[in-house]
Specification:
Distance between the termini: 70 Å
Radius of gyration: 20 Å
Mean pLDDT: 90
Number of domains: 1
Largest sheet: 5 strands, antiparallel
Strand content: 25-35%
Order of helices and strands: HEEEEEEEE
Strand order of the largest sheet: 6-5-4-7-8
Number of strands: 8
Number of helices: 1
């Protein structure tokens, strides 16, 4: 059986296009479950605070990776914060992206948090995004108890 040159890639190896779909269930754990439930029910963002170092983790953690202690203290953090860094996606990968490109993802340090939260940036043109700018969460009208209940973070206008 002969293999056509079209079936061979640039490297001379056989190409076989396919798609693998694997259904799965992701367990959010105690900390993640409370985090998502608070966003869903109250549009509030909470983190967990280490009893030794005082670091506030958002998203919350059950164990401090710095001190290796269990964390059981919950603190509400603000829904606004500072953009630490960002990236702009300009290419399309059908079926897995949250929006059509171009769109921006940023790391936001929320007021009262020690760690940054990765999320979408919205209501701003990519060329106007600046490190250090203040942003605020925009919550979905209908929330389902997941990460995208925060629709995106928009610039805070003074």
């Amino acid at each position: 059986m002969a293999v056509s040159s079209e079936e061979l890639g640039n490297t001379g190896t056989l190409k076989y296009p396919s798609r693998i779909r694997l259904p799965y269930t992701w367990h959010a754990g105690k900390a993640g479950s409370r985090f998502y439930q608070e966003i869903k029910d109250h549009c509030k963002i909470w983190g967990t605070k280490c009893p030794r170092c005082g670091w506030v983790y958002v998203p919350p953690r059950e164990t401090c990776p710095r001190c290796f202690l269990d964390i059981d203290e919950w603190v509400e953090v603000g829904d606004a914060g500072t953009l630490l860094t960002y990236t702009i996606t300009r290419y399309s990968v059908p079926g897995i992206q949250p929006h059509e490109p171009p769109y921006a993802l940023g790391i936001i340090k929320l007021d009262g948090a020690g760690s940054g939260l990765v999320h979408l940036l919205g209501e701003i043109e990519p060329e106007d995004i600046r490190v250090g700018m203040r942003v605020q969460a925009v919550f979905r009208e209908v929330r389902e108890g997941n990460y995208l209940d925060i629709k995106y973070f928009k610039p805070l206008r003074s």
